[in-house]
Amino acid sequence: MTASLYDLPTRRSQQGVVLVVSLIFLLLLSLLGLASIQSATLQERMAGNQRDHDMAFQAAEAALRWAESQAKKGNAINDTAWSEKKEMDTYNLGDIRLNRNPQYYIWSGGQAVEGDDNINGKPLYQITAIGYGGSPNSRVVLQSWYVPD
């Protein structure tokens, strides 16, 4: 009797090894794909948060410029400094992407001294503006000192 190649003992001891190796390889590829998805999701959330912050900053900047024009005209000027509890005026941007319209507060901070004689002063205004982004959690507060021309 002659033995066939299929009856050799080395052939029988290797059955199933390819299956185990391929399952381990598939598991590693699945973990790599899962990590890539998590990374892409995190990057998308960071980009969205940055966009919300930029929208809030631009809204606050627009409210600050509007408040400067109001201060130049002498409108909406308060005699006490702003705090978080004070009522603020609203600037209607008309942008539906924003969670809220930006707000501003103008305080007359006294006189700005002009020249060396310290006599002819112009009004000095502290302007605080709050802009909101697309989500209720994005908020930017800007503050400036303004002396009209």
List the main descriptive attributes of the protein structure presented here:
alpha+beta, 149 residues, single chain, five-stranded mixed beta sheet, 42% helix
Task: Round the Cα radius of gyration to an integer and report it.
Answer: 33 Å
Strand content: 15-25%
The residue fraction in helices comes out at 40-55%
Global structural class = alpha+beta
Task: Provide a count of the helices.
Answer: 2
The 3D shape can be described as: rod-shaped
What characterizes the major β-sheet? 5 strands, mixed
Order of helices and strands: HHEEEEE
N- to C-terminal distance: 114 Å
Mean pLDDT equals 86
- How many E strands? 5
Uncertain spans: none
Oligomer kind: single chain
Description:
With 149 residues, the chain is α+β, with helices and mostly antiparallel strands. 42% of the residues lie in helices and 22% in strands. It is built from two helices and five strands, in the order ααβββββ. The protein has helices at 9-13, 17-73; strands spanning 77-78, 89-90, 103-112, 122-132, 139-146. Strands 1, 2, 3, 4 and 5 form a five-stranded mixed β-sheet that branches. A hairpin with a 6-residue loop joins strand 4 (122-132) and strand 5. It is rod-shaped. The protein starts with 8 loop residues before the first helix and ends with a strand. InterPro entries: PilX/PilW_C, PilX_N_dom.
